[in-house]
Structures are given as structure tokens and as C-alpha cells.
Write a structure and sequence with these properties.
211 residues; alpha/beta; Trna Endonuclease, Chain: A, domain 1; 4 helices; 21% strand
């Protein structure tokens, strides 16, 4: 990874987040920090999980980076293209070429639009979103909490209203809005009776006889 410059002193927020990255789903070993990747834009961390899958992690400290997902996808592609060269340079690099690196984005919050776009960009779950917040600690000091953002489809299923049930004893009745426009007069026989018999035929047989 000699083609990337390192950031010597990450800020206090990033130092605290680094210690909590395992909350996103796997214990991580940091391989590099503050790398200059695609377009000379920084990658906060490149890490590897015990199974050998690489993680590309980007942080948006104030939640105002509207291009965080786009930058993340570009940096993941940049890392994946260089991984074979890094494996040649460092034979003991504990990283596998497949599957492709997992992209982790960390911010105070994510809009539904970003979550939907992340799911569409990688339906297999190769993009993890983590949101952080400060909460009061046991001794009055503030503690940073990092939590994974649930997948969008799981949240939609949880928040969906329950299906409406039919009133007791009625079953499922489908009401039709079709109206024929016919009146009782249209069903009257020529002699004025509504006896339901066919006109012009032999009506002497019972209705259910060989019919």
C-alpha cells in the first residue's frame, strides 16, 4: 500500500470511532488509515475481518456529505483494483480478493434516499451503514455510540401496517361496483309475473329435470 499517504494524527472523533468499528458486524484489523484513494480523496480506514474480507470505511463527521455513497463506491473500486498488487508486495497480507471489499459508511444519520440507493447499488449486503451519536455515560461524561443501520427492506417490513381483516363472521367478501342498469321491470314476463321461466319454451318440466 505504498502508493497511499497516511494521515499522521486523526481527529478525536475518528480515534473514538476506530475503537468501535466492530459494532458494524465483525471484529476488524486496521491495515491502513487516512489513505489517498481515487481522486486524491481520503479513505478513513482499510481493514480486514477474520475471514479475510477487506473493508473500505469512510466517515462523514457532520452528516453533510451528500456524495458519501458515491465516494465510497469509487473508493471501493479503487481498492479492489489495487488489491492484487498489494498482495504481491505483502505476501502475508491477510486479505482475500473475493468477495469484493465491503463498503462501510459512517455518519450521524442517513436519509431514506441514501439507504435505498445503497441497497440498490449492492442488494447482496456489501454496503454497511453505521450511525453514531453521543449519549451520557455512567460518570456524567459523554460516550460515543456506533450502531448499524438496519437494511431498508427489513425496516419497511417492520413499519408496514397490519393487513385489514374482514368483520367477524363475514369472511372475505369482494364487493363489486358494477351496475347493470336493469330494473325489476326488465325481468318481468309478458304476463306481468316474475316467475323466472323462459319465454317461448316448454315450461311444464321441472327446472331440475335433466337440465
Amino acid at each position: 500500500m505504498s502508493d497511499a499517504a497516511a494521515e499522521p494524527h486523526p481527529g478525536p472523533l475518528r480515534r473514538t470511532l476506530r475503537a468501535r468499528l466492530g459494532a458494524l458486524g465483525a471484529p476488524l484489523q486496521i491495515l491502513a488509515e487516512g489513505l489517498l484513494g481515487e481522486g486524491d480523496s481520503r479513505i478513513d480506514w482499510i481493514a480486514v475481518e477474520p475471514a479475510g474480507r477487506l473493508w473500505v470505511i469512510l466517515v462523514d463527521e457532520d452528516g453533510k456529505d451528500d456524495h458519501l455513497l458515491v465516494r465510497g463506491l469509487a473508493q471501493r473500486a479503487w481498492v479492489r483494483a489495487r488489491l492484487p498488487d498489494w498482495q504481491q508486495l505483502a505476501r502475508d497480507l491477510p486479505a482475500r480478493s473475493e468477495p469484493q471489499p465491503l463498503l462501510a459508511l459512517v455518519a450521524p444519520a442517513f436519509s431514506r434516499l441514501v439507504r435505498a440507493a445503497a441497497h440498490e447499488a449492492d442488494p447482496a449486503g456489501g454496503i454497511r451503514l453505521g450511525h453514531f451519536r453521543w449519549q451520557p455515560g455512567p460518570h456524567g461524561n459523554a460516550e460515543l455510540l456506533l450502531e448499524p443501520v438496519p437494511p431498508l427492506e427489513a425496516t419497511a417490513q417492520r413499519d408496514a401496517p397490519p393487513p385489514e381483516s374482514a368483520p367477524s363472521g363475514t369472511g372475505h367478501v369482494l364487493a363489486s361496483s358494477f351496475k347493470s342498469g336493469l330494473t325489476d321491470r326488465d325481468f318481468e314476463s309478458p304476463n306481468g309475473r316474475q316467475d323466472g321461466r323462459l319465454e317461448g319454451g316448454d315450461n311444464s318440466r321441472p327446472a331440475d329435470d335433466n337440465f
